[in-house]
Amino acid sequence: MTSDAIRLCSVSRRYGAGESAVTALDRVSLSFAEGTFTAVMGPSGSGKSTLLQCAAGLDRPTSGTVTVGGTELTGLSETGLTLLRRERIGFVFQAFNLVPSLTAEQNVALPLRLAGRRPSRALVREVLGQVGLGDRARHRPSELSGGQQQRVALARALITRPDVLFGDEPTGALDSRTSREVLGLLRGMVDREGQTIIMVTHDPVAASRADRVVFLVDGRVDGELVGASADGIAARMARMEVASC
Ligand code: ADP
User: Fold this and answer.
1) 196 burial class (0-12, 13-18, 19+ CB within 10 angstroms)?
2) CA 48, CA 55: separation in Å to the nearest integer?
3) Ligand 1, residues 11, 19, 22: which to mutate, most atoms within 8 A of Cβ?
4) Rounded Cα–Cα distance for residues 128 and 156 (Å)
C-alpha cells in the first residue's frame, strides 16, 4: 500500500484582479504517491512554475488545498509554512544557487544550520558520498563543474530527508552527458531510498526517466503518460504546442 506524499485538491491561483486578472492554475487536482518520480511538462505560461511554487509552499493558492505528508499547507501560519518547507521539502533549481564563498560541505550543511541544528560531519559526508562527491567536500562551487555543483545542490536538498524533492528544470543548464548523470542520481534516489520527486522540465529525455509525466495547458491538467519513452513524450508535446498556438 502506498500513500500520497503530496496532494493538490482543486488548486487555483489567480494573479491580479479585474480585467487584467490571470488564472495561472485552474482547479488542479493531482496526487503524488510516496516514492514516485513525476515530471511536469507544458508550453511556456501553462502554469508549471506556479504549480511547483504552490505545491512546495512557496506560494499560496487562491483556492483549493495542498497537503504534504498529511499536513494541510493552506491552514498553516507563515512560520508554520517556513518550518514545513525547511524540514519536509527540498528544492533544486536550474541555476544551482550555491553560496559561492562556502565549501561543498558547508553548502550541504546550510539547511540544518538554518534550522538551528548542528550538522554532524559524518552525515554531511554521507550525503555528499551519495551524490558521488565524497572527495570534493572542501571545494568551493567555482572549483567544481556544473554537474558537480548540481550534485552539491542535490545533497543540500536531501540532507533534511525531505518528504518531497522539487526540481525546477534541474538539468536545464547541463550538457546532455552531465544531465544524464544527474537524472541517474534522481532515479536512484527514488528506486533505492523511496524519495518522492516532482520535476518541471522541457526535455522529453529527462521526463522519460520519470514514472509519470503530467501535462499542463492553460493552467489545467491536460492528461498524463505513464512509463512513456522520450519519443512518445516529444510527440505529445509537439501536439500540445500546435494546439495552444
Ligand atoms: P510556466 O512555468 O508554465 O511558464 P507560470 O506558472 O510561470 O508558467 O505562469 C502561468 C501564468 O501565470 C502565465 O500567464 C504568467 O504570465 C502568469 N503569472 C505567473 N506569475 C505571475 C505573477 N507574479 N503575476 C502575474 N502573472 C503571473
Assistant:
1) buried
2) 11
3) 22
4) 9
In the numeric block, the cell 572527495 is attached to 135
For 107-126, what is the mean pLDDT? Answer: 90
Q: List pLDDT tens digits, range 13-52.
A: 999 988 889 999 999 999 999 999 999 999 999 999 999 9
Ligand 1 neighbourhood includes 22 CB (under 6 angstroms): yes
Rounded to the nearest 10 degrees, what angle do helices 146-158 and 104-114 cross at?
30
Give the pLDDT score at 139: 96
> Containing domain of residue 98, as a range?
4-244
**If you ran DSSP here, which 8-state letter would residue 44 be given?**
T
Amino acid of residue 181: E
Phi, psi of 11 (to 5 degrees): -85, 125
> What is the tally of structural domains in the chain?
1
CATH code, domain carrying 56: 3.40.50.300
Ligand 1 atom nearest residue 42's Cα: 3
Of 148, 139, 150, 85, the C-alpha closest to 111 is 85
